[in-house]
Amino acid sequence: MQAVERQNVDLEAVRAKYRAERDKRVRADGNEQYKEVTGDFAYFVDDPYIDEVVQRAPEKRNVDVVIIGGGFGGMLSAVRLKQQGIDNFVILEKGGNFGGTWYWNRYPGASCDIESYIYFPLLEETGFVPQQKYTNASETLAYCRQIAETFELADKALFQTEVTATTWDEAACRWQVSTAMGDELAARFIVHANGPLNRPKLPAIEGIGDFKGHTFHTSRWDYGYTGGTSSGGLSGLADKKVAVIGTGATAIQCVPHIGASAEQLYVFQRTPSSVEVRNNGATDAAWLQNQDAGWHDERRRNFEKLLAGKPVRQDLVSDGWTDAFKLLVGGLRDKAPSKSRVALWALGGLFNSAMYKSGLKKYLTDKAMRFMNLAEAMEIADYHKMQAIRDRVDNVVDDADTADALKPYYRLFCKRPCFHDDYLASFNRPNVQLVDTDGRGVERVTQNAVMFDGVAYEVDCIIFATGFEVGTDYARRAGYQVTGVDGLAISDKWADGMTSFHGMHARGFPNAYFFGPVQGGFSANFTYALDEQARHVAYIIDAMKQRGKNRAEASPMAEAAWVDEIVEKARETESFQAACTPGYYNNEGHLTRRQQDQAYGEGPVAFFDLLAKWRAQDRLNGLDIA
């Protein structure tokens, strides 16, 4: 690739192309384009993985802490509480075992796009050695169970137990938690670790309920129908015509396996994903086991600092995420004012070493570059990165029209980047057909076909790779209402935008802690953020017990100040998000989603440091204590 030069990029033309692709995908109904999985569609959330339905009598308990969710967030909460000497807690999980998103997502090819050595929490404590740099779903699920075994969590959990309501009892100073099993639990503290991506969503396609064939969501994969395992070999599809609706991260991973097994596969695409080389490799066990104490936190922090535009001596992870950031930041950091570095974290594009070697380093350190508009410099670099991704499509996909349809036209971080070595090549198979809807989506579904542009694609099975609800009402996503002081529902509290202190405490909801990225430290490596939240909550609960205090909630002043800080930093990225193609990152292109419903704008490292400093003061500042 030639050295990147300003005159080689017509930014106005690039912006016009991206804007045109964005505009034809923006829908007036925004998030309402998705159908809630209730009523006739409730079967989409049934658990296909349980071996035996639990039969037990309802429990009535009084505990220190109820933890809702048995994924990484819930398990980390339990571990950090135990490390503080707090053992009187119960974990409620609607699935049949620990795992959270990895319990549900067992579709063929499911794997993590974050390096396993930083994605897996508690690696030093468990001594676990992941088999590969990028782990798969089955190993991740096995690791969840190892955490449970190492820290003896199984006896603390009630599985197949769905929460139906949580209600604050002011007189008792307790949370009353009800479940579908008839349990009535009273808890001093409650941790909502349901996960931000836990409730499947379906597109509200006309006639979706009329289809007479087989249907399921990728997060409830039906191996009884498809045959095979998470490694593939879907022999049950050998005589089946299959439709996959969706081309996000899930489809990227499962389409190659379906295409290798089905008689015919139609992939219905509204917006193509950016797909880079994955380059997985086996773990050197000796290397991992010989790391110095503290290596795990150092490696996680190193990754986050690179993605936050902060200086590091060495890129310890060195993957598709970090390669790009270190190149751009290395050339611009010293010349960018601190406010611009906030934007750099949010807007920066990925690069790869090939671009670096071919002249980008010279471009970034050129004297003229030092006076160039920072946002424009990033935009140019982003364009070249995205063009390299589009060029890869041409190099892999044989049919020119299919290749053109698979090219993403938007800034890289408008959508979560994908990494896969087989997805694009799947469209070279004679039995795999891309149905590009040019941003419009599927027209309708009939009794035996998926319709687009007047053509009926007759299929035996429809697989919805349509992701999870994001940005909808909290109670709808959680599956239960949270009712605080004086009957205040969390849905009403946050109806006009989230208000919290540190993203975890909400005024009117004492002793309740909410896990998630909103108003907190959003990280591509989400388990790191969960671990930091778990440490923080465990500290607070222990501090309350040590002080002999029963009740803590965010003060009005602290909550208002935190919202102001979130809004101030969110403004710096608003124009970027507004120009993005619709997706869950930007509320389907509708920025009426309030600025306060964003992550902490300085990035996760700064947020984690802020929490650590707050804990070190040991004053519980910002909380009204009783």
SSE arrangement:
Elements: H1 11-23, E1 34-35, E2 60-68, H2 72-83, E3 89-92, H3 101-104, H4 116-119, H5 123-126, H6 137-150, E4 157-158, E5 163-169, E6 174-179, E7 184-192, E8 202-203, E9 214-217, H7 223-226, E10 241-245, H8 249-261, E11 264-269, E12 275-276, H9 285-289, H10 295-307, H11 320-332, H12 338-347, H13 353-365, H14 374-396, H15 400-405, E13 418-419, E14 432-436, E15 444-445, E16 449-452, E17 455-458, E18 461-464, H16 474-478, E19 481-483, H17 490-493, E20 512-514, H18 526-547, E21 552-554, H19 556-570, H20 574-578, H21 604-617, E22 623-625
Parallel strand pairs: 2-3, 2-7, 3-4, 5-19, 7-20, 9-18, 10-11, 10-18, 11-14, 12-13
Antiparallel strand pairs: 1-8, 5-6, 6-7, 15-16, 16-17, 21-22
Helix pairs in contact: 2-18, 11-13, 12-14, 18-21
Give the class from helix and strand content and strand pairing. Answer: alpha/beta
CATH topology of the largest domain: FAD/NAD(P)-binding domain
Mean pLDDT: 87
Shape call? globular
Number of strands: 22
Total domain units = 3
Q: pLDDT under 50 segments (min length 5)?
A: 1-6, 330-371
CATH class of the largest domain: Alpha Beta
Describe this structure in words.
With 626 residues, this protein is α/β, with parallel strands linked by helices. It has three domains: 6-25 and 279-387, no CATH class; 60-96 and 151-199 and 470-625, FAD/NAD(P)-binding domain; 202-274 and 415-464, FAD/NAD(P)-binding domain. 35% of the residues lie in helices and 15% in strands. The chain is built from 21 helices and 22 strands. The strands form six sheets. Strands 2, 3, 4, 5, 6, 7, 19 and 20 form an eight-stranded mixed β-sheet that branches. Strands 9-18-10-11-14 form a five-stranded parallel β-sheet, covered by helices on one side. Helix 8 (249-261) links the parallel strand 10 and strand 11.
